[in-house]
Design a protein that fits this description.
Elements (H helix, E strand, L loop, with lengths): L8 E5 L4 H12 L3 E8 L19 H15 L3 E5 L1 H17 L6 H20 L6 E3 L4 E5 L6 E5 L8 H4 L4 H4 L2 E2 L7 H10 L19 H4 L5 E5 L4 E5 L22 E6 L4 E5 L5 E12 L9 E6 L7 E7 L4 E11 L6 E6 L2 E9 L2
Parallel strand pairs: 1-2, 1-4, 2-3, 4-7, 8-11
Antiparallel strand pairs: 5-6, 8-9, 10-11, 12-15, 12-17, 13-14, 13-16, 14-15, 16-17
Helix pairs in contact: 1-2, 1-7, 3-4
Length: about 350
């Protein structure tokens, strides 16, 4: 890669939000030759109404125009790539199959390595764009490892906004060309920078979740079945396995004298098993499809901090290899609603050691 003094080029994934817009502005100020790129993943007609949108919705039409306007203000080239087919195949089809299998997948953890840092860059390169680096508005840091010359993924300075959890499945090859300009900034500082530059998105609200909670379109036909308690008693009926997730409390349609939560999704019996809050704690899980960043793998029991959901606090755990690309994770304290299909991330202080997918046992 070329030195900074030679003005290396960087593609910046611009979502039309304040974070990616400020990331592009910072890189311009640092002397990079910046090229803005945006991906369209919604296959249907686009809506251009202002407001708060989920990242997969017709409303991304307005976000695309916001990204284009910011690029024009920054005087950088702007390119739009249609990835709706790739998104359908790599993300939507996978999510639907996972939900129907009783899993709770994390779409953002999958989209980053497969689409944003994968298919988008391939399509950009195939179009003739040449670039040295790729940048996004994620709150995380990429640093050089002092001992083994690895490029390391670390938490952002702003621990409230830190998004390293969603990036833990990026490969080392993807990280080596990645820049996260916001990793050393707080969200409030990013807002101030946007306002100071009079960017048109400076006051824009953050996007909502992936589908704003509406996953029905991904599931396909569902087969109703029994809702049973931990003693095997049928206490209700469910609309379909894919409509439920581990730890769910609302929407069960059960009249009970105490709160009940989804404990298990039993595909063999097409049953949703529910229990009390105390009954949905687990002291261990199995993680597979591992992606190691600071090491090639672990060969012996290793103590690390782990995160089992994006908004779940870290907890200490003992990781033990249990076969090809799998580890047993023994939590120091039992954890609430450990959901198969979710991303699990392993930390050593701020450094992301690796990540994987929680499996059914």
């Amino acid at each position: 890669m070329r030195a900074l003094s030679s003005k290396p080029s960087v593609l910046v994934a611009m979502s039309g939000g304040v974070d990616s817009s400020v990331a592009a502005a910072i890189l311009c100020q640092q002397g990079y030759r910046v090229i803005g790129i945006t991906m369209k993943v919604w296959a249907g007609p686009l809506s251009y109404s202002s407001g708060r949108h989920s990242c997969y919705s017709p409303g991304i039409g307005a976000d695309i125009e916001d990204a284009r306007n910011v690029a024009e203000q920054l005087h950088i080239p702007f390119h739009l790539f249609d990835l709706s087919n790739e998104f359908r195949t790599e993300i939507l089809d996978y999510l639907g199959a996972a939900y129907r299998s009783g899993l709770t997948p994390n779409p953002c953890s999958l989209c980053n390595p497969r689409i944003k840092f994968g298919a988008l860059l391939k399509k950009a390169a195939a179009s003739g764009l040449e670039f040295d680096y790729f940048a996004t508005g994620h709150y995380a840091r990429v640093v050089s490892g002092p001992e083994n010359h690895r490029v390391l993924l670390e938490k952002a300075v702003d621990k409230v906004k830190d998004q390293s959890y969603f990036l833990a499945l990026l490969s080392p090859d993807q990280l080596v060309r990645t820049l996260f300009p916001l990793g050393h900034y707080t969200k409030s500082r990013v807002r101030d920078i946007a306002a100071g530059l009079a960017l048109p998105v400076s006051a824009k609200r953050d996007s909502q979740d992936f589908l704003a909670g509406n996953y029905a379109s991904l599931l396909g036909p569902q087969v109703p079945g029994p809702v049973i308690d931990t003693h095997g008693n049928e206490i209700g009926r469910h609309r379909g396995i894919g409509c439920h997730t581990i730890g769910q409390r609302r929407g069960l349609g059960i009249a009970s004298g105490k709160p009940l939560y989804v404990k298990e999704l039993d595909l063999a019996r097409n049953a949703v098993v529910v229990g009390t809050r105390e009954e949905i704690f687990s002291d261990h899980c199995i993680a597979a499809h591992l992606n190691w960043l600071t090491v090639d793998s672990i060969e012996r029991p290793t103590e690390l901090n782990v995160k089992i959901r994006s908004r779940h606090p870290e907890t200490a755990a003992l990781l033990t290899p249990v076969g090809s690309n799998k580890v047993s994770v023994k939590f120091k304290e039992p954890q609430l609603a450990v959901a198969p299909g979710q991303t699990i991330v392993f930390y050593d202080h701020d450094a992301v050691v690796g990540g994987g997918i929680i499996m059914k046992e």
